[in-house]
Design a protein that fits this description.
Helix content is 47%, strand content 14%. The radius of gyration is 20 Å and the shape is globular. By secondary structure, it is an alpha/beta fold. The protein has 12 helices and 8 strands. The model has no long low-confidence stretch (mean pLDDT 96). The strands form 2 sheets. Strands 2-1-3-4 form a 4-stranded parallel beta sheet, sandwiched between helices.
Length: 344
């Protein structure tokens, strides 16, 4: 049996130039799951207000992390696809692995076209987002279904669910952090997750009486909040800390990448860095469990701007723990999940 495998990540501009970044931002922000406002207003804000103002500034940020081989996110994602493909090459079934980006290149549509051209009988799709959010996991799934339908093969797709609570993911993260802490002993550890607007959380609470209403609403994931991104992030952070045997006063979690004027979930990572610095904490390590590959949000927002914020508030050093990228336990986990889905 020929089985296709599609790994999906968010995406990155083709080049760190204002024009390329502008194209990427337009595609990203015109997604109704990302900027969930009426289409005419979204078009006006994106094309008239946001992109003209931000494309040059954002291009400068991408230039800070761009390498001679290209974008770190694309490099790490490709290496993961290649490494997983090599792991699957010795199995009885023939696996064909492709990488697709929700925004930018290589696109999900182009990746699926390559797989279907190889006459695969089914396609296993892994959106590389540990926690569920409409603006990440949901939009990637719908885009894959839409493109597969256009290619006449929508019925062949099988999806990996968000894996925020899977033991293999928690184990890979815990080992990544533990390896780092063998050589560096910070005063505090911060788990920084990508943020989402509060309205994204509340609209998925069908009861209207749980999410971000109760003080302990994210302490556990249950029927009332099984799709709550914040609760899943808290579960991930606590599970990693529990496996590492960390004391509660040694670690905390926060949410980064705020954008616009809307209210976002908290606490904010920037605010946590300022608060720790003001309290006299001198060294901090940061791990970002919502990003499985290092990218602008980890390498620039945390390792550069985050460090500047912490040091400017009285801290001495802030170090970023690398994302999972092609870390051995992570590669093994992804390979195992693909095989599990293939055997169903």
């Amino acid at each position: 049996m020929r089985i296709g495998v599609l790994l999906i990540n968010l995406g990155t501009p083709d080049e760190p130039t204002p024009d390329a970044v502008g194209r990427f931002l337009r595609e990203f922000l015109m997604d109704e799951f990302v900027l969930d406002i009426p289409a005419p207003l979204r078009w006006f804000l994106v094309n008239v207000v946001i992109v003209p103002r931000r494309q040059k500034q954002s291009a400068r940020l991408y230039q800070k992390i761009h390498t001679e081989h290209g974008s770190p996110l694309l490099i790490h994602s490709r290496e993961l696809a290649e490494t997983v493909a090599a792991r699957l090459s010795g199995r009885p079934d023939e696996f064909m692995v492709q990488l697709g980006m929700r925004y930018g290149n290589p696109s999900i549509g182009s990746a699926l076209a390559k797989l279907f051209a190889e006459n695969v009988e089914r396609v296993i799709v892994l959106p590389l987002y540990p926690q569920y959010a409409e603006s990440s996991f949901e939009t990637a799934v719908l885009e894959a279904q839409r493109k597969a339908y256009e290619l006449g093969s929508a019925q062949t797709l099988a999806f990996l669910s968000p894996f925020y609570d899977r033991p293999e993911f928690i184990d890979a993260c815990a080992h990544r952090v533990a390896d780092y802490l063998k050589t560096y002993q910070p005063d505090r550890l911060v788990f920084s997750f990508h943020g989402v607007p509060v309205r994204h959380i509340k609209k998925l609470d069908q009861s209207g009486r749980h999410c971000l209403i109760k003080a302990d609403c994210c302490d556990a994931v249950g029927p009332a909040n099984h799709l709550c991104y914040r609760a899943q992030c808290v579960f991930t952070a606590r599970s990693i800390a529990r496996q590492l045997g960390l004391k509660e006063d040694f670690y905390t979690w926060s949410f980064q990448s705020r954008f616009g004027r809307a209210e976002w979930i908290g606490p904010s990572t920037e605010g946590v860095f300022r608060e720790l610095g003001n309290r006299g904490i001198k060294s901090v390590a940061v791990f970002c469990p919502s990003f499985v590959a290092d990218c602008l949000e980890t390498l620039e927002e945390i390792a550069i701007r985050g460090r500047e914020t912490f040091v400017g508030s009285g801290g001495r050093e802030l170090n970023l723990i690398p994302a999972l990228n092609t870390y051995e336990p992570w590669v093994e986990s992804v390979t195992r999940w693909i095989v599990e889905l293939a055997e169903r």
